[in-house]
């Protein structure tokens, strides 16, 4: 009789232990599934790693407090400042829309000046003409204004220049020694870019 009571008690204790372990495991699994289901607060990323001819994918779990409101890195554009990059990089940045345009601020201090009235830059000759001499009232320059460096710019911050139509057509965007420019005028020699200024 005593032996039967002892076996019943042991069976009851083992059953209660199994039940409590089961409840703990169930709540842990439920908590983990809630973390993974909430895509706004948890994410997983796959990183491709290349070693020689091998390619393996490593999956890493990111922090559970990540906000997914920002654009993926592939869509982020890093703006480049004209005075801090090479001419080639400036041309590429201008083409892909990442060159930082300045409405009035100076792009560069190392370009054409009133004292250095003609220089060679990026495959063309640069000179300047002043609106004080040629007011250019007939030019259609939207948002025309005088920038901090004395150049005449349009509403987007492009420096207004003139060029021979056979060399650069009206509307052509290019890089000058003073920054990004757009052709608004003609009437200069082939191969020359005439920068419109207020000097």
Plain-language structure description:
By secondary structure, the chain is an alpha+beta fold. It has two domains: 2-61, no CATH class; 84-197, no CATH class. The chain is 23% helix and 26% strand. The chain is built from two helices and ten strands. A hairpin with a 2-residue loop joins strand 1 (44-51) and strand 2 (54-61). It is rod-shaped. The relative contact order is 0.11.
Please tally the helical runs, counting DSSP H or I stretches of 4 or more residues.
2
Give the spatial strand order of the biggest sheet.
3-4-10-7-9-8
Rg over C-alpha atoms, rounded to the nearest angstrom: 34 Å
Order of helices and strands: HEEHEEEEEEEE
Give the tally of structural domains.
2
Topology summary:
Blueprint: H1 2-37, E1 44-51, E2 54-61, H2 87-96, E3 119-121, E4 124-130, E5 145-146, E6 152-153, E7 159-163, E8 173-176, E9 179-185, E10 192-197
Concise account of the structure shown:
The chain has 199 residues and is α+β, with helices and mostly antiparallel strands. The chain is built from 2 helices and 10 strands; from the N terminus they run αββαββββββββ.
